Amino acid sequence: MLSSVAPRPWVDSTRREPTLRLLRTTHVASSGIDPLVQRAQSGDERAFHQLFQRHREDVVRLVFRMLGPGPDIDDVVQDTFVHVFRSIRSFKGDAKFSTWLYRLTTNVVRMHLRAKRSRPRVVTDEVPESALAETHQQEAPDDAAVRRQRAIQLYRALDHLTDKKRTVLVLHDLEGVSAEEIATIVEAPVLTVRTRLFYARRELAEALSQDPIFRTRDNDATRDSNTQAPRDSDLGEPRS
C-alpha cells in the first residue's frame, strides 16, 4: 500500500488532476543516458524530483488513457513513481529513458487492473468540467454533455479490450509511439504489436458502431462512426 511508503519530496499529493494535453501526443526520441537520470541513479533526490516534474504529465496522461475516468488515477501515478524510484538504478540505457518509463508505467497499470479484476470497474461520468470548458469555452451545454457521454462510452468500449490490445492502441494511436518502440515497451515482436493494434482498432470500431452517440459527428451527420477513430477530444482528460 502507498501509505506504507515514506513520503518523498517528489510526490505532490496536493495536485489531484494535473493539466493534460488534449491533442494526440508527439513522441520525441532521445538517445543516451540523460545526466539527470545518472544523478538520480546515484541517489540525488533533487535530480529525481526534477525527473518527476519532467515526466509526471506524460505518466498521468498514459495512466488516464489506460484506466479511463475514475478515482484511482493519482494512486496509480504515485505507485508508478515509487517503482521508478526503486528501480531507476536498473536502467542501463539500452533503450531511451522514456521507453523504460512507459514499460514500467504500463506494467504498474496492468498490475492495478489485475488486482481489481475481482471487482468490476465501472466507468463513471467523472469527466471534469474543466477539460471541457478549457477546450470548448463557447460550447453549448448540450454539446458539452454529448462530449462527456462520448468519453464515458469510449472508455466502456475500451474496457472490453484485453490489456495487451488496449496497451498498444493507447500507445500507438493516442501517445504516438511507433510500433517498433512499442515492441520494446511490451517486449513482443513488431508483427505481434501490429496484429494486436489491428484487432484492437477493429474491436473498438465495432463496439462504438453499436452506440448511437458515435454514429453522428458534429457538422457531418452522414458519416458512419464505424469508419472513424474516436476523436482525442472525446477522451475528456482532466486538468489541475
Account of the 3D structure:
This protein is an all-alpha fold. It folds into two domains: about 1-115, Orthogonal Bundle (Rna Polymerase Sigma Factor, Chain: A); about 130-235, Winged helix-like DNA-binding domain superfamily/Winged helix DNA-binding domain (Arc Repressor Mutant, subunit A, Orthogonal Bundle), CATH 1.10.10.10. The chain is about 55% helix and about 0% strand. The radius of gyration is 18 Å and the shape is globular. The relative contact order is 0.15. The model is unreliable at about 1-5, about 10-30, about 125-135 and about 220-240 (pLDDT under 50).
Mind sketching the topology for me?
Blueprint: H1 35-41, H2 45-67, H3 73-87, H4 97-115, H5 129-135, H6 141-158, H7 163-174, H8 179-186, H9 190-209
Helix pairs in contact: 1-2, 2-3, 2-4, 3-4, 4-8, 7-9, 8-9
